[in-house]
Design goal:
The chain has about 290 residues and is α/β, with parallel strands linked by helices. It contains 12 helices and 9 strands. The protein binds NADP nicotinamide-adenine-dinucleotide phosphate (NAP).
Amino acid sequence: MAVLVTGATGKTGVAVVEALRSRGIATRAASRRPGVSVEGVEHVRMDWSDPTTWADALDGVDAVYLVGPYAAADNAGLVGRLLAAAPDVRRVVHLSIMGVDKLPTAIPMAQWEADIRESGRDWTILRPNWFFQNLEDGFAGPLRDHGVLEAPAGDARIGFIDTSDIGEVAAIALTEEGHGGRTYTLTGPQALTYSEALAELGQAADRELRYVALAVDEFAGRLSEGGAPDWAVVWQLALHDLIRAGEYAAVTGTVEEITGHPPRSLGTYATAYANYWRLGGLAEGGLGQA
Ligand SMILES: NC(=O)c1ccc[n+]([C@@H]2O[C@H](COP(=O)([O-])OP(=O)(O)OC[C@H]3O[C@@H](n4cnc5c(N)ncnc54)[C@H](OP(=O)(O)O)[C@@H]3O)[C@@H](O)[C@H]2O)c1
């Protein structure tokens, strides 16, 4: 069989590609700026905003990992149109998000879920919790270099998940029977506050990493000043409302039920990426302090 992975160079896409490659599945990895093809993984250019790029990406694939076109114009109908252009695709695994029914339509994730459910395909919807990997970029970008994460999360707990677990679950759902018509809420093994998570990450990296709770208005202002479009600001504020309300404190056993092993813990992530986090500290003059 052959699988198309959209968003293949993104946080979950990379993990899905790796999980498929390690299972020996022929994989086509699609994004606007494709990576370099290696044995078993063909990288192709595909742009949600340019339907002329879809046919080559879809040619000959049986299953698709679908990361919705959240930044594309007129995106509500794009998932339905892509599926209509892919009548031979039997299986679709869609990356949605925990709390999708309470989030605004700034990203039409609920619409995409509905289109996929009604597509007549063997569909699986993944609704993950907050990624560990969110600590590495976006509004958390300054954390690695400056040791401080500022966000309006209060002291809420979050069931952080490692994207490699999402990759593994997706690869299984894409290639094995028994996952059609299922919606999976995926989380890590424990719910941590940002302060707890950063203390553990900092310990592994031998440096102080701190969380500062930000007021909502200040967070919104910083996102806008940083160039985030209005839809992205609305989306981030809504996500943080859910986080502060405790909705992301959920922990489920779904990753273990599907993969046969417990989800990776923050400790595992912290050990695996200790050098990444340590080097950020060195860039700030950590060597001089030694
Ligand atoms: N972060 C979280 O904690 C979290 C939790 C649950 C769910 N989610 C959901 O995860 C999704 C994002 O997935 P991700 O984090 O794996 O990806 P990501 O890291 O945000 O990267 C986006 C990927 O999509 C590609 N892409 C962007 N625009 C494109 C376009 N117009 N046409 C084709 N490809 C495009 C990008 O590559 P190019 O730029 O090269 O095209 C990249 O490969 C969102 O829908 C978000 O709601 C996130």
